[in-house]
Amino acid sequence: MHLQESGEMYLETILILTERRGNVRSIDVVEYMGFSKPSVSRAIGLLKSGGYVIVDSDGYLYLTEAGAEVAHKMYDRHKLLTEFLTSLGVSEDTASADACKIEHHISDESFEAIKKNMEMKK
Questions:
Q1: Which pick of 22, 49, 53, 122 has the fewest CB atoms within 10 Å?
Q2: Residue 6 class from Cβ within 10 Å (0-12 exposed, 13-18 middle, 19+ buried)?
Q3: Are residues 65 and 77 in the same domain?
């Protein structure tokens, strides 16, 4: 199953919430993302059927190995792209919002070049 940008965003959100809270349910995703319960429920169902998320009997969400791989990739891209844009003088809020858009579309080659550039500056 090929993930759309929205699927990547859901996985990244589950990762972030898991790191912050430990246990995550769909309602937490609803509150964090500001989406409707039916929209989140449908997305979680698709991610579950795609093998990216497991939902236990108590309704807690867990990333599978495949889900965690995508989530970490997106989150790492988000953090580095935000850092890169702020280093150029972009405000933190704008940099984060722009990074969220870019992280899903940037090629691996371009991302690795930015990452290398950022590492050289440290």
A1: 122
A2: middle
A3: no
